[in-house]
Amino acid sequence: KIIKNFDISIWNISPGIIVQNILREYYKKGYWNAEIRVEKHNGHFLFIIKEGKPFVIDSIILKDGEGNNLGMTFFNDLLEKKYFDDDTLNCAIDNMKTFYLSKGFWDVAVIEKKVSKNEQLNLCTIVVVIKKGVQRFLSNVICDETTDDIVSFLKKYKEFPALPFDPVVLEEQQDFLIRYLQKQGYWYVDVKP
Predict the structure, then answer these.
(1) Residue 5 CB burial class (10 angstroms; 0-12, 13-18, ≥19)
(2) Mean pLDDT, the chain, as a whole number?
(3) What is the C-alpha separation between 186 and 138, in angstroms, rounded?
(4) How many CB atoms are closer than 10 A to CB 50?
(5) Cα separation, 127 vs 173, whole angstroms
(6) What phi, psi does 6 have (nearest 5°)?
(7) CA 45, CA 18: separation in Å to the nearest integer?
(8) Contact (CB, 8 A) for 164 and 136
(9) DSSP string for 30-47
């Protein structure tokens, strides 16, 4: 596709910078052998792009810091798509982090994200290594005021001996307490954990 009408400010940008930005976008989509040639015609720059083939994901390996395989359910979307896509990979990593946060691992972190390429077969292997950190548990919830509404709301947290602590619990409690206090006439209340 040839774009003829650039904004005037585009002419102040070096073609080399434009090529770098275009290549970065191709790289994020798995076109790691893309090439761009710039030609000047009648005062205009023409960017000729040779995409090549996108890399296909051969496998994804998720490990913890000790080298144990953790499964790949977080990467199903990426595996179904098959072609490497950096945005989809990062989304899968975010979903994985959210999962571990909900299981009480507040310190979960990616310590390595490596992509190994097989140039001859146009395949790649993705290795993601995480550190889960310490798992935290919710063992009790205490509230000074004990109305029927509050007791019934907190009951679900007291029925289980020790739940992995999900930070969403704090948001649920905060929302409940704000609604409860507003019903009591305290419209401008602020509840903090």
Answers:
(1) exposed
(2) 80
(3) 29
(4) 10
(5) 38
(6) -90, 155
(7) 11
(8) yes
(9) T-TT-EEEEEEETTEEEE
Beta bridge partners of 105: 135
Q: Read off the DSSP letter of residue 120.
A: T
User: What is the Cα–Cα distance from 190 to 193, expressed in whole angstroms?
Assistant: 10
pLDDT at position 154 over 90? no
Lowest mean pLDDT among 36-40, 117-121, 144-148: 144-148
Most confident of 19-28, 131-140, 152-161: 19-28
Q: State both tokens at 114.
A: 């490596």
Residues 189, 182: contact at Cβ < 8 Å? yes
Distance in angstroms between the alpha carbons of the first and the last residue of the chain: 55
- Which of 6-10, 26-30, 54-58 is predicted least confidently? 6-10
